[in-house]
Amino acid sequence: MKVINALGRRKSAVARVYVSAGNGTIMINGRPLENYFHEDSLIYIVKQPLEVTGTTAQFDIKANIDGGGIKGQAEAMRLGIARALCEIDSEAYRHTLKSNGFLTRDAREVERKKPGRPGARKRFQFSKR
C-alpha cells in the first residue's frame, strides 16, 4: 500500500496526515502521540476514527501539525485521519465515519475584534448622561 495523505483543519490548526500500512504507531511532528498530547481526552479524540472503523492496529500515521491550540490540533488531526481512511477504502469506512460526524469540517472560527470596541461583540458601558 502506498502512503495516503490528507488534510485536516480546525480553527487555525492545520494537520497534514500521512497514512501507510503498519502496526498502529502514531507520530506527530516527530514525536509519539502520547508525548505530543498529554491529556487522555485529546488522545481519545485523535484515535476516534480508527476505533470506530476497527483499524487501530492496521495503519501507521505520521502527521505535521501547525497553528492553533492543542484542542484544535487534535480535532484537525481527527478530520485528517478520517479523510485518509475514506481515501483508502471508501465503501468500507465512509458510511461509519460520516454517521459519526468525522468527515464534517467544523468551520467555526474566532470572530475578529472590531475597532473602537473591547472585543468582537462586547460594548463599553452605556452612559445616558
Report helical residue fraction.
25-40%
Radius of gyration, in Å, reads 18 Å
Q: Let me know the average pLDDT.
A: 94
Largest sheet entry: 5 strands, mixed
- Under CATH at level 1, the class stands as Alpha Beta
CATH 2nd-level architecture: 2-Layer Sandwich
Low-confidence stretches: none
End-to-end Cα distance, whole Å, is: 73 Å
Give the CA-based shape.
elongated
Biased composition (Basic residues): 114-129
InterPro entries: Ribosomal_Su5_D2-typ_SF (IPR020568), Ribosomal_uS9 (IPR000754), Ribosomal_uS9_bac/plastid (IPR023035), Ribosomal_uS9_CS (IPR020574), Ribsml_uS5_D2-typ_fold_subgr (IPR014721)
Family: Belongs to the universal ribosomal protein uS9 family.
Protein name: Small ribosomal subunit protein uS9
Supply the key terms.
129 residues, Ribosomal Protein S5, domain 2, 5-stranded mixed β-sheet
Structure description:
This protein is of the alpha+beta class and 129 residues long. The chain has a single domain (4-99), classed as Ribosomal Protein S5, domain 2. Helices cover 36% and strands 22% of the residues. The protein contains four helices and five strands. The chain has helices at residues 33-36, 40-53, 70-88, 90-99, and strands spanning 4-10, 13-21, 26-28, 31-32, 59-66. It has a five-stranded mixed beta sheet with strand order 1-2-5-3-4. Helix 2 runs parallel beside helix 3 and helix 3 packs antiparallel against helix 4. The longest helix is centred in the middle third of the chain and has 19 residues, at 70-88. The model has no long low-confidence stretch (mean pLDDT 94).
